[in-house]
Write a sequence for this structure.
């Protein structure tokens, strides 16, 4: 029989009806044995085979696709040969043992280069080496340069077979060691991944044995607690609990160890600062294939800030729900998401579900709805806030509800707008109070006017009975009329009762107020300088301030003497308007008053609060100098 050509064995069918050459080659690759380093165990077995069989050459030969490779050899001096030189390739075809007494006489080996040329082998005996599931991989063989007609004796044959089985066991052991090494490498890699993962986690991470013995904590644990590494292993962590939480936490932990239930509990854990912080403790058992607990994996999460925030949120929720103001939230599209109880009551809605069926614009009267669309929402999108007086509608009665409405955007943590909020105040009670106040003021004003009229009437009666007093009475009544007109600007007003100020100016108002202080047809207050238009609020504030100033001048200053007087001048400079009051000819001024009167305090507050201006007094010996400086744009309000 001719020696098979290269690849011929790989292409052959199963050697024993079950295994193919491809199975053998795959098994050799899986073992990773080919081209491995020599190993003493294999070398010892080869030497034993050579010794027992009295052979000069012994080999552990593994048959690859195109070569036979020797894991160990004695007497050959080579690590591999081409498959064309392989006699062991025939051994794995033959069964467990192949003995060829004379290689020159066997048709399978007569043309083998190892027979026809150096080293001119003549005898061969080989026992099959098998892998897993009995796959033949090669042979433990002995060779001699002289024929052996009797082959091997029984002891040699048995020994060769036993040694081959031992080599088969070594190969399987190699596979086992490789699996163990791979498993250990996998475990080591898994351990590295676990430690990297736990080091990256923001939570404190710990593990225990099945009995609950703590054997690992990540760095977060030691950073949080500040304890030395390893000091809380075993049951050492029990001392980290708040005394009030210790027994409760351990009772729950022991229960979970006994039942295998997941562990979850909130407790206070001692921080490295010495404070106790609320922590969420969790643990899950890790089980093997049979369901037995191998380890516990646990975490501790610092929730102290969260609990504080939740407490603050609860307080805020109580404030919102108990507030008398209308408090509401909506989406950017205007869908209602929340209204407090006061809001529901204000507009006559039965519950939140009914409110959530509405849009924001449904809450307003027709007029206010137009203001909402044309003024309010554009201002909110432009400036982030709007506040002003509008009218809700009552959903049951349809009546308008006057409110001080505001609206502003609600943002998420990234700053993106996610909706709108409002804290709106019911103005009905305030308006009723304002109406009552206005009624009282009108009544008082009416009575004051009556007093002016009565005084004027008495003066007229005096003039009729004493013709010589007529000039004095006429002047007196004119001054009294001017004082009455000035009074209309000084007293508080409602929008309906305020005197008309359209087209009114600073100096025009000053002339109206100071007309009461003319004497013998001569004005005691000289008014000059730049003028500026004023609005309703400014007119009231200026009238109050200058009326108070004139009253004080009559009592103590430049208008308290016949020779005295006042100059009142206005100057426009850039974006400000300055009104200067200068007294002359009055009593000598010895310095600022020891205390401010109520009128002066009220005047200063009016300047600062209503006009956003500055009021300055210079108590010069020759007379008071007062400067009132106001932004020009504020004069028109």
């Amino acid at each position: 029989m001719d020696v098979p050509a290269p690849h011929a064995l790989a292409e052959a069918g199963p050697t024993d009806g079950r295994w193919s050459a491809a199975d053998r080659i795959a098994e050799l690759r899986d073992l990773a044995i080919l081209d491995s380093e020599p190993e003493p165990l294999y070398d010892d077995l080869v030497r034993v085979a050579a010794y027992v069989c009295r052979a000069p050459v012994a080999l552990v030969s593994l048959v690859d696709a195109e070569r036979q490779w020797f894991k160990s050899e004695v007497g050959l001096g080579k690590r591999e040969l081409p498959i064309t030189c392989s006699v062991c390739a025939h051994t794995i075809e033959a069964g467990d043992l192949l003995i060829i007494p004379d290689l020159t006489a066997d048709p399978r080996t007569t043309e083998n280069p190892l027979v026809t040329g150096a080293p001119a082998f003549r005898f061969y005996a080989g026992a099959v080496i098998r892998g897993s599931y009995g796959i033949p991989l090669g042979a433990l063989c002995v060779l001699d340069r002289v024929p052996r007609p009797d082959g091997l004796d029984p002891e040699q044959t048995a020994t060769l077979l036993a040694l081959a089985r031992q080599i088969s066991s070594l190969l399987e052991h190699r596979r086992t060691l490789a699996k163990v090494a791979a498993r250990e490498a996998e475990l080591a890699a898994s351990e590295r991944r676990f430690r990297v993962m736990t080091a990256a986690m923001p939570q404190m991470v710990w593990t225990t044995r099945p009995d609950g013995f703590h054997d690992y904590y990540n760095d977060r644990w030691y950073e949080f607690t500040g304890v030395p590494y390893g000091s809380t292993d075993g049951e050492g962590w029990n001392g980290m609990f708040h005394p009030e939480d210790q027994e409760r936490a351990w009772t729950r932990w022991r229960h979970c160890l006994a039942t295998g239930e997941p562990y979850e509990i909130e407790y206070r854990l001692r921080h490295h600062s010495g404070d106790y912080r609320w922590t969420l403790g969790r643990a899950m058992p890790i089980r093997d294939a049979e369901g037995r607990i191998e380890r516990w994996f646990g975490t501790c999460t610092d929730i102290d800030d969260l609990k504080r925030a939740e407490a603050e949120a609860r307080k805020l929720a109580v404030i919102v729900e108990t507030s008398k103001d209308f408090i509401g939230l909506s989406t950017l599209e205007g869908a209602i998401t929340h209204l407090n109880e006061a809001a529901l009551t204000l507009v006559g809605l039965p519950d939140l579900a009914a409110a959530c069926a509405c849009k924001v614009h449904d809450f307003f009267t027709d007029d206010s709805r137009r203001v909402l669309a044309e003024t309010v929402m554009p201002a909110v999108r432009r400036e982030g806030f709007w506040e002003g007086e509008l009218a809700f509608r009552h959903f049951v009665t349809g009546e308008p509800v006057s409110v001080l409405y505001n609206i502003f955007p609600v943002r998420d943590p990234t700053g993106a707008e996610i909706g709108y909020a409002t804290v709106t105040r019911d103005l009905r009670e305030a308006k009723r109070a304002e109406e009552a106040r206005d009624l009282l003021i009108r009544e008082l004003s009416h009575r004051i006017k009556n007093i002016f009229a009565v005084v004027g009437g008495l003066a007229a009666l005096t003039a009729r009975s004493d013709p010589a007093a007529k000039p004095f009475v006429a002047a007196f009544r004119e001054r009294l009329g001017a004082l009455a007109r000035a009074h209309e600007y000084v007293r508080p007003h409602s929008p309906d009762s305020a005197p008309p100020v359209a087209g009114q100016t600073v100096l025009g108002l000053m002339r109206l107020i100071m007309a009461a202080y003319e004497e013998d047809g001569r004005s005691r207050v000289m008014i000059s300088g730049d003028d500026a238009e004023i609005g309703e609020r400014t007119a009231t504030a200026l009238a109050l301030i200058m009326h108070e100033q004139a009253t004080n001048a009559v009592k103590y200053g430049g208008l308290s003497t016949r020779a005295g007087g006042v100059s009142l001048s206005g100057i426009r400079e850039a974006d400000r308007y300055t009104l200067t009051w200068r007294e002359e000819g009055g009593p000598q001024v010895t310095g600022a008053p020891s205390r401010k009167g109520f009128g002066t305090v009220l005047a200063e507050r009016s300047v600062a609060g209503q006009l956003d201006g500055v009021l300055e007094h210079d108590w010069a010996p020759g007379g008071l100098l007062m400067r009132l400086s106001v932004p020009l744009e504020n004069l028109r309000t």
About this structure: The chain has a mean pLDDT of 85. The chain has five domains: 8-178, 201-308, 325-426, 427-498, 500-637. The domain at 201-308 is CATH 3.30.450.20 (Beta-Lactamase).
